[in-house]
Write a structure and sequence with these properties.
- This protein has 103 residues and is an all-alpha fold.
- Helix content is 92%, strand content 0%.
- Helix 2 runs antiparallel to helix 3.
- It is elongated, with a radius of gyration of 18 Å.
- The termini are far apart.
- The model has no long low-confidence stretch (mean pLDDT 87).
Amino acid sequence: MFIFCNKSIIYNLAMAKKNIQERTLNFSIRIVNICKFLRENGGTGYDLSKQLIRSGTSIGANVEEAQNAESKPDFIHKMSISLKEARETNYWLKILIATEKKT
């Protein structure tokens, strides 16, 4: 039973790793598509798209980079950067939503 639990934990960790990489890649693709739309329509959205594409695609890039971290502290640092980028992306998306409601 104990060995089974260990294998189960390892399997779940591997799936979580794959899941976060897959999810951040898909998120980056959606951000790129949003930014394409914003750039085509000009206005304030065009300016915000520059910030959004940087922070939004950086999330997945940092998650990928963390997979080859040299140490546990390096992994934590890279994942922390990814979290900061996610927060920034959330900020830009809030601004886009708020300004869209007013127009």
